[in-house]
Amino acid sequence: MRRTRKIKILILSTLCVCILLMSVGFALMATTLNILGTARMNPADWYIYFDNLSEVKLKGGAQVNSNPTITNGTTLGNYDVDVTRPGDSITYTFDIVNDGDDDAYLSSLVKNNNPTCSGGSDSDNEYVCNNLTYTLKYTDTNTEVALNDKLDEHTKRNVTLKLEYNRSVTTPITSIVSISGLNITLVYTQVESDVNPEVPVVNKTVTLVDGDNSDTRTISSNSVKFEDLSITGKSNISCNNGAIPTYKDNTLKVSNVTGNTTCTTYSTLQSAISNLDTSTGIVMIANETPTYSITIPSGKTVTLDINGKSIEATYDKATNMITNIGTLTINDSVGTGLLKSNYTVIISYRSSNTTINSGSFESINANTIRNYDSATVVINNGNFTRTGSGDVIASINNANLTINNGNFTSASQSTILAQNNNANVTINNGTFYNSDGQSIYTGGSSTMTINGGTFYTGGTLSTIAHSSTGNLTINGITAYKTAESTSGAVISNNSSGNIYINDTKDKVYIANLSTAYTNIYSPKTVYNASSGNIYIRGKVADTCNSTLNSNKKGICIYGTTRTILNETSATGIIDINGAHIVSSNFIGINAYSGNVYVKESKIIGNNAIVNSAGNGNIYLCNNYIAMGYGLGPNFICR
C-alpha cells in the first residue's frame, strides 16, 4: 500500500517597500518585511520549519525599527527597516530544518522576479523596479535556492535573504513608490516510494554485500534503508553507480539511487578506493589508521562521508594522505569527523576538482590542503589546522581556490597561501588566524579577491601580505593584529601588484591593536613598501576605534601609531577616497616616499594627523581633520 505523501509549505510573504525622496537628494526606501510560514500538521516524523534567525545585517544607511522573530517555528515576522540611499541592503540568515525521518525535496519554488511598483509616477515606478534585487541563497555556497534541492532527514540548510537597492542609482525619484509581489513560496515534499524528483519511478535493486548482513532490495524510489545491521571489522561502506550512503544507529541508508546499485563493506579505505566505480559514494563506519597513500584516479568521482569518524595517519616519510586527480567531495554528516596526517591531508592537482562541505582537517609537517597544477578546490565549511611550521591551505600554479566559510588556524608562515603562475583565490567568508605568521600571503603572479571574513594574527608579520605582481581586491573585511612588528602591518603591499579596498560587499574594519610596542614607529596598519599602488574607496565609517568591528558600515582604518604609511622604499601611491582613519597615539598618515592622496575622508591623530618626510608628499582634499599638527605646504586638492 502506498504511503501518503507528506508536504510542507513554507511561505515567505508579504514584503512591502516604499521609496521616498530625501531632502539631501538620496532616495529613501522604507521597508517592512514580513516572512510568514504556514504548515500542515503531520505526525512527528515529518517536521520542516524555520530556525536560528540571525540578527539583521544592514549595509549603508539602513536602520532597524523592529527586529525579526520566529513564532512557532513556522512564522517569521515583526521586521521593519528603513533604507536610505542607493547601495543599501537588508540581509539576514535563517535555517530551513528537516527534523523528520524522511528526506524532502523542494517540489515547488514560486518566486516573483517581476515585482509590482505602484503609487508613484510611471517613470518612478519603472525606475525603482528596475533597480531592486531580491535573492534567497544558501549561505555556505552562495548559490540560489532551486527547484528539486534536497533536504535530507535530520539536517538543515542555512539560507540568506537579501534585498538590495542598486548602488549605481543616480537619479532621485520624485514620488513615493510602493513595492509588492516579492513573496517566495517554498513547498517541500517527502521523498517516499511514490516520489522521486530526479529520475522516473522504475524498479531498481540495491544490494548490500557484507557476510550475514547481505541483502537485496527492489525499490521504486531513489532511496532505501537496511536496518538492524551488525557490521564488524569494517571501516567503510562503498556504493557504486553514484549512490550516496549514510550510516547511523546500525542503519544504512542509500539515496540518490538511479539504477541497480551494489554497496560493499571494506576493512580499509584503500580497499574501497581500489574498487571504484565511475561514481562512488563512501561512508565511514569506524575509525581508521591508514599506512598508505590513497589516490582518486582521473575520471573517477568519489563522495566521502567522514560520518563523525577519524582517519589519522602517522607516516614515517613525506606521504600525502589523499591525492585527488579526479573529482572528490567530502562531507561530515555527524560533525565530529577528523582527517589528520603528519603530512598533507589532501593534495589536488592535474585539473582535478575537490569540494569540502564539512569536517575537520589537521596536518603537522606540510600543507593541510595543497592545490596546484590547474586544479580547483571549493571549501564551503570545515575546520582546517596546521600545528607544525607551514601553510594551512596552499594554492599554486594556475590553481583555483574558493572559500565560502570555515575556520583556518596556523602557528607559522601563512594560513592561506596563493603563489606562482596565476593562482586565483576567492574568499567569501571564514575566520583565518595565525598565531605567529601571516593570515594571507600572495606571491608570484597570483590574484586574490576577499569579499568578507575575519583575518587576524598574533605574531610580528603582516596579517595580509601582498607580494604578487597580480592584484588583491578586498570588497569587505575584518582584519587586525595585536603584536608589535618592525616589518609587518595589518595589510602590506610588497610588490608591483595593486591592492584595491572598498566596501561594496561588506564593511571594512582594518586595525592594528598593538599597545605594548617598544618603538612608536613599529606598529603599522596599511603599509606600502613597493611600486604597487593601494586604492581605498568607500564610505566614511560611522565610528572607528579599538573596539573590534566598531563600525557598522563604511571603512574604518585604525592604528595605535602610524596608521597609513608609504615607506621609504615605496614608489607607488596610496589613494584614498572615503575612509575613517584614526591614530590613537601618533601619525594618521605618513609619507616617506611617493604620494599619498586623501579625499572626502575623516582623519584623526593624537600627536599628528599627517606628516610628510623625506621625498614623500601628502595631498588632502575636502576632509574632516581633527586633533593634530604637521600640515605642510604639500597639502592641496588635485
Give a description of the structure.
The chain is an all-beta fold and about 650 residues long. The protein is about 0% helix and about 50% strand. The chain is built from two helices and 63 strands. The protein has an 18-stranded mixed beta sheet. Strand 2 (about 15-20) and strand 3 form a beta hairpin. It is globular and about 80 Å long. The model is unreliable at about 1-5, about 10-45, about 195-200 and about 630-635 (pLDDT under 50).
Layout of strands and helices, then pairs:
Blueprint: E1 7-12, E2 15-21, E3 27-35, E4 48-51, E5 57-59, E6 63-66, E7 69-71, E8 75-83, E9 89-98, E10 104-111, E11 116-118, H1 122-130, E12 132-138, E13 150-151, E14 155-165, E15 177-180, E16 184-190, E17 204-209, E18 215-219, E19 224-226, E20 236-239, E21 244-248, E22 251-255, E23 261-266, H2 269-274, E24 279-284, E25 294-296, E26 301-305, E27 310-313, E28 322-324, E29 327-331, E30 338-341, E31 346-348, E32 353-356, E33 360-363, E34 369-372, E35 376-379, E36 383-386, E37 393-396, E38 400-403, E39 407-410, E40 414-419, E41 424-427, E42 431-434, E43 438-444, E44 447-450, E45 454-457, E46 464-468, E47 472-474, E48 477-481, E49 491-493, E50 499-502, E51 508-512, E52 524-528, E53 534-537, E54 555-559, E55 562-566, E56 574-577, E57 580-583, E58 587-591, E59 595-599, E60 602-605, E61 608-612, E62 617-621, E63 624-626
Parallel strand pairs: 17-23, 24-26, 25-28, 26-29, 27-30, 28-31, 29-32, 30-33, 31-34, 32-35, 33-36, 34-37, 35-38, 36-39, 37-40, 38-41, 39-42, 40-43, 41-44, 42-45, 43-46, 44-47, 45-48, 46-49, 47-50, 48-51, 49-52, 50-53, 51-54, 52-55, 53-56, 54-57, 55-58, 56-59, 57-60, 58-61, 59-62, 60-63
Antiparallel strand pairs: 1-16, 2-3, 2-15, 3-8, 4-9, 5-9, 6-8, 7-8, 9-14, 10-13, 10-16, 11-15, 12-14, 17-18, 19-22, 20-23, 20-24, 21-22
